[in-house]
């Protein structure tokens, strides 16, 4: 190699490095919404008064709190979601010694930066957690068991906490508590009331077959039956109807076991195959938009609110937008069971926040998490801004919602799911990359006619095992 | 300094010494000048490069202990079809990001040189170069809208009676990669055109004059004079654009993120997902190192060809 070619080699390397560099920077994209959860107190008897808005100095000796000295809570929130900001504002109003240093980032960027934030020099007191198992295993997250005992969280309805528990072997769903939900949202089917009336829908369908009828009627009437997103940039929205169908054709426990990475769990089961085949039939019948593989999450919602699509599978975090963009014209129902009389099921997950293991103000952060679920004003903000169930001990009254808001319907549906015990985490949350590397590409292939129901489940199971084998 | 009675000789010696001192001083000053850049280059380019190579032999999630696995990460890449498939997609992108922009750039530069040397040429060059100035992320989002089913491109197609071929270009298994390629052409054509048309102006006009006296057509001029004399610049264009194709990330990430299916998944996207979503730093580094080696294998022959004396 002569001098010149060495120089060119170096020059090429330089150019190459600069071209590769952008790979380290994540452009902001639309975030795939993680299904959020609802775990509603079975009964809503207003017996206990909500904690007062005065600092509970009397209990300072026993229960962790923010004290009276100035505290600056170091927090990381998710860009685009107002709720934590509003709650932080109200908290400072009630506890003026606590102020906030809030940093925010897109959800996808949080996925990438959380490990470094937690292990860095200035670990956050409070952080929106995109995933938690690996952080818990690495000892980066504070074990909240002591707080749970001190605040009595263990007496809250069980499903509120189980998704945030991580066992010593890294399975989720049981073990020590590593995070809390700011609220617990619920997914199901939203519908355009005008279009639903047009196809003769007078009440929500009670079985999958009745829902099939409505879809066929919509198609026959020249309407788009279901608006849904499917671009890889947002993550494939067909995972919502697929999981609903799975829970209609089979029990929810095996699905949760798979998501929580219980040993031997598989998604490739006979009832899930029926569900996937049903979804494939919907695709082949043209019930989804033909360009679904290119539709992003925000576009799907925009098109739905503009009247394209009778139904959309989504979660109650969109309540405020739907109420605003199609006031009085949006309804909600839980995806129906296969046979009448069976309980419906729904995906639901907490809006998860954790405390760094090395956080300076862990006590105050835990106190805030408890306050969010138990303080009357906080619960009202939670429902008004977030649209989801605020959780907390059973027996607290549900905050009021304006009449005509779809939030009334999602909160009522949450009670049904809470009583039936049929809530699920989201199949996209099973591993950190199962959505990007498994569900999204394989469901897109199904839309493109390049994958069938059986192949879909096999491919995703293979990806799941590949990721867990690491 | 030098003590001697022979003054002229002493002066000569002292001049020689001071000259060699000066040379050394200049060398030191030269190094001092490049020191800041060198430090930055070493810290932000060379060090990460070496670290990536090191990481590629470990299993590491970015937080916990690093476990030596030897060549296992490289074997995994060869064994998992989705990972290897991204490399094939990268080569398909070379056609769109490299061959077409360089070919078109040559034609455009040559046409501008022949027919539009004045203000029109400047305007044409500026317009073509503009995409280089626009942030790619913004451009990618706008292209996403243009190529969507309700987007402008399909509206135009419908207006001219081609409604039958409208589709969601970025969501179609057969068309997503060419559609991404189209964005690449739009970005890279201006770069190639400007580089090549600058080079054309350096070609001795006498060549063209004598060719025209001999009655050569535009095409003959193009093939016999322009292309051979632009060899070096074509080599530069090919180098830069081939690297842009093989190491593509931003355009693909903001337009399709690798979908639909894995039809536009390129190594850059996979490296990103492996490193930051899956937290498999070792495997991601191995794929990055393989990509670098691959780029060098492709680039070095191009360099040699364009450098050979004519």
CATH homologous superfamily assignment of the largest domain in chain B: MetI-like
Structural class of chain A: alpha/beta
* Low-confidence residue ranges of chain B: none
Count of alpha/pi helices of chain B: 13
Strand-residue proportion of chain B = under 5%
- Please give the number of β-strands of chain B: 2
Average of pLDDT of chain B: 88
CATH class of the largest domain in chain A: Alpha Beta
Helix content of chain A: 40-55%
Order of helices and strands of chain B: HEEHHHHHHHHHHHH
Helix/strand order of chain A? HEHEHEHHHEEEHHEHHHHEHEEHHHEHH
Helix content of chain B: over 70%
Count of distinct structural domains of chain A: 2
Folded structure, characterized:
The complex is a heterodimer of chains A (470) and B (310). Chain A is of the alpha/beta class and 470 residues long. Chain A has helices at 3-20, 83-94, 107-119, 133-137, 145-151, 159-162, 193-198, 208-220, 239-249, 253-259, 270-284, 297-305, 319-325, 362-374, 376-386, 406-420, 434-447, 453-468; strands at residues 71-78, 98-105, 126-128, 165-166, 176-177, 180-192, 226-227, 311-315, 330-333, 346-354, 423-424. Chain A folds into 2 domains: 57-185 and 349-422, D-Maltodextrin-Binding Protein, domain 2; 187-347 and 425-468, Periplasmic binding protein-like II (D-Maltodextrin-Binding Protein, domain 2), CATH 3.40.190. In chain A, helix 9 packs across helix 11 (270-284). The longest helix of chain A has 18 residues, at 3-20. Chain A is globular, with a radius of gyration of 23 Å. Chain A starts with a helix and ends with a helix. Chain B has 2 domains: 7-55; 76-307, Orthogonal Bundle (MetI-like fold). In chain B, helix 1 (7-55) packs across helix 13, helix 4 (119-129) runs antiparallel to helix 7 and helix 12 (267-277) packs antiparallel against helix 13. Chain B is mainly α and 310 residues long. The radius of gyration of chain B is 27 Å and the shape is flat. The interface between A and B is large, with 56 and 57 residues.
